[in-house]
Amino acid sequence: MIEVAPFIVYGFATTHDALVGERTLLAADITHMTIPTPKSLGALCGIALRVPEASAHDAELALTAARCGWTVRVQMQDRVL
Fold this sequence. Notes:
The chain has helices at residues 15-27, 56-65; strands spanning 4-11, 33-36, 47-52, 72-79. The chain is of the alpha+beta class. It has a single domain, classed as Alpha-Beta Plaits, CATH 3.30.70.
């Protein structure tokens, strides 16, 4: 049986914002994965950040402190790797 878990995806309007977000999460030592922006999020830049649901609060605090605004935040479910 495949295990499924919730995670949060942050979509960004620009590639610059996505790269700042990635550097911010790296510096804050927050587990994340850079992924292609899911088509369901609409016409955004091609980079999104996937964060485990348990880390979402810390990720949002770090992104907000860095003044790195995301355009969309959605909860999704996927296989646990």
